[in-house]
Amino acid sequence: MATRSFLSSTQWEQAQEVLTPPLMTPDGDVRQVFCFSAENFSGWLSARLEELFKSSPEWEKCHPIILGSWARGELSPKSDIDVLFCGDEEKVKLFVDKANEQGLKLRYRMPHNPSDWTENVEAFDILALLKARPWTPEGAQKLFEQQKKIWSKKNYYRRILLKAVKEERKNRAKRFDSITNYLEPNIKFGPGGLRDLEQGLQIYELFAEKFTHPGHALNVLHYYRNYFLNIRQKLHLEGHGDILSNAVQFDLAKWMGFKTHKDFMRDLQRGLSRVHFYSDWIVEVAESSEKELKKLEQFEFKKFEDLSLALHKNSSVLVQKKVRENLDSLLPDAKVKSLAKRRGQVLESILDIKATDEFLVSIFRSRLIDKLVPEIRRLVGYVQHDQYHRFTADSHIMQACREVKRIYKKSSQLGPLKSLHQKLTKEDWRILSWSCLYHDLAKGLESGDHHSDLGVTIVERDFKSYGFSKSFTDEVKWMVKNHLEISQAAFRKNPKDPKVWQDLRDKGVEGARLYRLALFTAIDIRATNPEAWNEWKAKLLRDLVVSLESKKAQDYFDFQTLRLRKKLQLSSEVIEELGPVLLDSLAIKDLVNDLKKAEHAESSLAPLVYKTRKGEVWIRFHEKKDRKGLLSDYVGQLYSLGLGIRHASIHTLSKVGVYDWFQVSTTRNIQQLTKILENTQVQSKNIPAVKFESIQLVSADEKEWVISFKGPDQSGLLASAAKSLSELGVSIKSARVHTWGRQVDDIFTVKSLGSEPQELIANLRQKYQL
C-alpha cells in the first residue's frame, strides 16, 4: 500500500508542471520510449528526496543505500521509500526520527549481520541489493563487497530468487483474479503491471545467457515500463492510488492524447496483456534447461496446422512464444481468407469439448486465435464499461470457451441446473462450443443493430467458408441471435407467465435448443463475472426450464396450436382466463372443439356434462348473452340437483358469451345428468341465508384480486358469495371450493376494480354483518 507523498505543497504544484503528457499518443506499435516524461520526473522526485535526506546532519554517517523503485529510477509521488542503512546505529535512529517528524515515512532496515547482508532476509531483499545505489564512498564500498559475494554464488541465489518470484506471481494472480485483466486494473500489482514488468527485467538480467533472441520482448517491456510509470505518476499526482478506476480513466485518456477513454483503455489492456505474456516467458526461459531451450530453438514449423499441433502437445509459454514468431510467415494476412476450410478444421480441434483447458488458453495467448478468427483482433483490450463485465471482450470469449469445457467435465458446477447436462448430445456440445466462440464477435460494431443480430451475419459468412453444413450453421446462428433471451426471461420476468412461454416459443426455445440456451446462459454469466453466478440464478434458470416443460405449458401450447388450426377468433389470452385447473382436467382438443361450437352458435348451447380420464365430472353452461344473477342461478340449479361444487371456471368471452364450467361431485352417471340438465331451464332460485365467519383479501395486483369466504359447511355458501359479488359490480374470473371437514373456504378470483380492494372487502363484511 502506497504511503502519502513526501512532497511539500509547493513541490506538489511544481510536480504538476514537471510531469508532462506523452509527446505522441501511445499506440503500442511505435515504441518510442523518449516520448514519455516518466524517467525525467522520477529523477526530479529523486532530487527532492535527496534534499530531504541531506537536510539532516546525520545522513552521511548513516551511509544510506537506496533500494526499490527509487534505486531503479521508477519513483512516483506516493512510492514507498526503501532504504538500507549500513552506518552507525545511533545516527540511523536519530535520522529516522527526524525523517518521521518531517512526514517522511521510510521503509528501512539495517543488516542483521554487517558482514553478510543476505542473512535473515527475504529473497526479494537480496534481489534489491543487486539494483541498490549507495550515497557515500564508504557505503559504496560495503555494497560492492556484498554484491560481489552474492554474484560469487550466482547460481545458488538465482534458484532461490526464481523460486520466490514464481511463488509471488502465483499468489498475486490469485489476489487479482488474473486470468486476464480487471475492468479497473491495478497498474502496479495487477497482471501485466509494473511488478510483473520489473520481475521480468530482473530475471532476464540474472539469466541473460539463456536468451538467444530477447530483443523484441525487452523492447516491449522497456517501452511499457515508461508508459505505465507515466500513468502511475499521473494517478498519484491527481490524488489517487495505483488502481485505474472508471472515473479516472476519462481524464487520464484526455491527458495521454486519446480521443476517447475507450481507446485509451483498449490500448492499455493490450499493453498489460503483452507485459504479462513476455514476463511469463522470461520466467519460463530462466527455469528451463539448456537442452530444452536448444531443442525448441531448432524446431521448425512447415505449415500453419503445425502451430496448433505444437501447442496441443506442449501448451507452455515457451511454445506460445515460438508460435507467435511464426504466425505471419505461416498465416500471412493475405492468405488467411483462402485458408478458411483448413482454419475451420483447426478450430474444430481446439473447440472439441474434450480438448484441454491449457490448450485452449495457449491458442489465445499465442495470438494464433487472431489468425484463425480475425474478428477477434478488434476485441483485444475492448473493455465494456458497465461494472459487470470483468474481462475484456476477447478474454470474455476465451472464458466462455473454457467454461463450456469445465461444465462438460464437472456438471456439479452448475448446481440446480446440472440435470440438463445429461440431456445434451455430442452435437449439442459441439454447437455450444462454437456458440461460445462466436456469440460476442460483433461487440463494438453496433450501429442501430444489436450485436446478436450482427453476430449472425459473421457466423453465416465464416461457417460457409469453413464448409460447415447448413443445419449446423443454422443452429449456431440461432444460438448467437438468441443468446440473451433465456436470461431475460429467467431473471427479469415471471417464468410461469404464459406470455413469457409464448415469447420464447415464438423464438424457437424448445427441446434441445432450450437445454443448450439454458446452459449457455450459465456459461455466459460465469465467463462475464464469476462472482455473478450463484445458486439462486441456477435455480431460476432451472425453474424456467421446468416451467416450459410442464404439463401446464404443454397444454397451453396445444391449446394455441388448436386455436389457430380451428381458426377460433378468440385471442391468445383466453387461455389465462380459462385457468389452469380447467386446462389440467379437460382434454385440450375437446375444450377447443367446444369453444368452436360456442363461438359459432347462434343461440345458447345446451349444458354439457363431461367426464375426464381421471373420473372428474365437469358441467359446462353457455349463454350467448350475459344477465345479472346468471352465476347465482347456475350455482343454485346445481345445488338443487344435489351436486356439490368443487371448482368453478367462470368467464364471459368475446364472441362466445357466458362460458362457465363447474367441477361437481355426484353419484349420477353422465347420461342421467345430461338428461336432467337438458330438461331443466335455468332460472332464478331463492338462495338461503348463510353465515360466513370471515371474508378476507388473499392477494391483489393491478389485474386481479383473490378473495376468501370462510365459514361452516352450509347450503348456498357459494351461491350467496357469487350473488353478493355480482351485486357489487364485480366480474368473477374463477372460483374454487375448499372443504376441510365441516369448514368451507370459497376462493374467488375477480377482475380488479381499479380502486382499493379493501373497500370491496368492507362492503362484503357489512353485508354479512362481520
From TrEMBL:
Protein name listed in UniProt: Protein-PII uridylyltransferase
Superkingdom of origin organism: Bacteria
SUPFAM superfamilies named in the record: ACT-like (SSF55021), HD-domain/PDEase-like (SSF109604), Nucleotidyltransferase (SSF81301)
Domain ACT, residue spans: 706-770
Keyword Coiled coil: no
Hydrolase found in the keyword field: yes
GO molecular function: [protein-PII] uridylyltransferase activity; hydrolase activity
Record's keyword terms, sorted: Hydrolase, Magnesium, Multifunctional enzyme, Nucleotidyltransferase, Repeat, Transferase
InterPro entries reported in the protein's UniProt record: ACT-like_dom_sf, ACT_dom, HD/PDEase_dom, HD_domain, NT_sf, PII_UdlTrfase/GS_AdlTrfase, UTase/UR
PANTHER family: BIFUNCTIONAL URIDYLYLTRANSFERASE/URIDYLYL-REMOVING ENZYME, BIFUNCTIONAL URIDYLYLTRANSFERASE_URIDYLYL-REMOVING ENZYME
Short name of any one Pfam family annotated for the protein: HD
